[in-house]
C-alpha cells in the first residue's frame, strides 16, 4: 500500500499542534475491485467477489514542519507519523476483512442488477464500518482503546 506524504508548513510547534491535535490529519483512500466469477462448487452460477485494489489504494500522511524543529519535536513527529499510519492501516484492514467476508458469503449474481446491488451493499457496509471505527477511536486520538488487531498508539501530538 503506497504512502503519499503531504508537506505542511507551520509557524512553530504550537501552531502545528493546534492544527494536528484532535483531528484525523491523514486518510486512507480505499478502492475496491469486484467481479462475478463462476461458483467453484456450482459452475453454472456466478458469485460476487470483492477485494481491495492494493495498487490504487493509498494512505496520505502529513509531513509537518516549522523553522525551529527541535530534536524532541522530531521524536514527537515521528511518533505521530507512526500512530497516524497505524490508524490509516486500520481503515485498510477493515476494508480487506469486509471484502473477504462478502466474497466468502458467495452472493449469487444472476443479472447486472444483482451485481450493481452487491456493489452498493459493499460500499454501504464499508462506509458504515469505517465510520464506526472512527467513532470508536475518535479518528485515532483514542487508538489505544481499539480492539486487537487495530489497537495502537493514540495520534496525539504535543510540544514538549
Ligand atoms: Zn480514521
Total of domains: 1
- The general outline is elongated
Helical fraction equals: 40-55%
Number of separate helices: 3
Fraction of residues in β-strands: 15-25%
The end-to-end distance, rounded to whole angstroms, is 32 Å
Mean pLDDT: 94
Oligomer: single chain
Order of helices and strands: EHEEEEHH
Which ligands does the model contain, each kind named once?
A: zinc ion
Strands in their spatial order, largest beta sheet: 1-5-2
Category by helix and strand content: alpha+beta
Can you tell me about this structure?
The protein is of the alpha+beta class. It has one domain. The chain is built from three helices and five strands. Strand 3 and strand 4 (46-52) form a beta hairpin. The longest helix is centred in the middle third of the chain and has 34 residues, at 71-104. Residues 24, 87, 91, 134, 139-140 line the site of zinc ion.
Strand-helix topology:
Elements: E1 3-9, H1 13-20, E2 27-29, E3 32-38, E4 46-52, E5 58-65, H2 71-104, H3 112-137
Parallel strand pairs: 1-5
Antiparallel strand pairs: 2-5, 3-4
The chain binds zinc ion.
What is the structure about, briefly put?
The chain has 160 residues and is α+β, with helices and mostly antiparallel strands. The protein has helices spanning 13-20, 71-104, 112-137, and strands at 3-9, 27-29, 32-38, 46-52, 58-65. It has one domain (3-145).
Key features?
160 residues; binds zinc ion
